[in-house]
Design goal:
Layout: H1 9-18, H2 27-30, E1 46-51, H3 56-70, E2 76-80, H4 85-91, E3 97-101, H5 119-131, E4 133-137, E5 141-143, H6 148-157, H7 175-180, E6 198-202, H8 205-219, H9 222-225, H10 238-248, E7 263-265
Parallel strand pairs: 1-2, 1-4, 2-3
Antiparallel strand pairs: 4-6, 5-7
Helix pairs in contact: 1-8, 5-8, 8-10
């Protein structure tokens, strides 16, 4: 008598992804409504960011104030990458903000060099594992309009990627990263980068396995994310890795560069929303 084992759909997707069969997924598959809001639920993601002491003011505080202004019910997680005790104490007073301290001791030494940005994919993965859907925004940026479009995109697509900061990613892409990943740098000529400072993620299996896990794995390997000779003059570290992995994933990813009008890269210089930060109790 034959016996049959029922394998969960999620397990099948992960196995197919591991063997490369999900490279046939196209945009319509990515936008399948796998995640559906509960009745009355509008917010689709938790906003996450990280900061050290120099980016606390005005950058981090202004970002939180802008979210309090434009999406007051949004949960925010702030990761401590080197804040002072006084700054930590203030973060803990902010409404709807959860404080987390990054444990550098758990990871390879190169993550301590904040300028490699290797800590970012590690944080993103941990947050996706915790919250299912998250949006990363650099602490030097801010929100300048309603976030409802972002919520809708996350419900529909399960990811958010944007472009617009360059027209050719190879201008700031170290060849040794490509060699480590088994890719040719020339294959990315005249392809724009996907922004490292603003990206949304979910735990949909094909996105998780084809994008997030390779990005996370690269971040843990110095030869991948920060190869010898790489600097900001010739490489963009987390952004470079995200870009080449996205183009090589086999997924038909649609950049939503129109969101640049909502998310503003202010490079730690904007103070418009400092007075909008709300304190606990909320």
């Amino acid at each position: 008598m034959k016996r049959y084992v029922i394998i969960p759909t999620t397990t099948v997707l992960i196995l197919l992804t591991a063997f490369g069969y999900l490279s046939l997924y196209k945009a319509d598959d990515l936008r399948s409504p796998l995640d559906r809001p509960r009745p009355g639920q509008k917010l689709s993601f938790t906003l996450i960011t990280g900061s050290n002491s120099p980016f606390f003011f005005p950058g981090l505080k202004n970002l939180v104030g802008s979210v309090h202004k434009w999406s007051p019910d949004r949960d925010i997680v702030v990761w401590d990458l080197g804040l002072s005790p006084e700054q930590v104490a203030e973060v803990k007073t902010w409404c709807r903000v959860t404080y987390r301290k990054f444990d550098f001791d758990k990871y390879p030494p190169h993550l301590r060099n904040l300028h490699t940005y290797a800590w970012k994919p590690v944080i993103v993965k941990e947050m996706v594992d915790t919250y299912e859907r998250v949006l990363w925004i650099d602490a030097g940026s801010h929100i300048n309009d309603s976030m409802s479009t972002m919520d809708q995109l996350m419900w529909e697509d399960g990811y958010i990627l944007i472009q617009g900061q360059d027209a050719d990613t190879t201008l700031f892409l170290h060849e040794k990263m490509c060699l480590h990943l088994g890719l040719k740098k020339t294959s990315f000529k005249n392809k724009p980068s996907f922004a490292g400072g603003f990206n949304g993620w979910s735990n949909r299996p094909y996105l998780y396995q084809k994008l997030l896990i390779p990005w996370f794995t690269c971040a843990l390997t110095q030869r991948c994310i920060a190869p010898e000779g790489a600097s900001l003059a010739n490489h963009r570290f987390d952004q470079s890795a995200l870009t080449v992995i996205s183009y090589s994933s086999g997924l038909d990813l649609k950049p939503h560069t129109e969101l640049n009008r909502i998310e503003k890269e202010s490079r730690n210089g904007n103070k418009m929303y400092l007075d909008r930060v709300r304190k606990k109790p909320c």
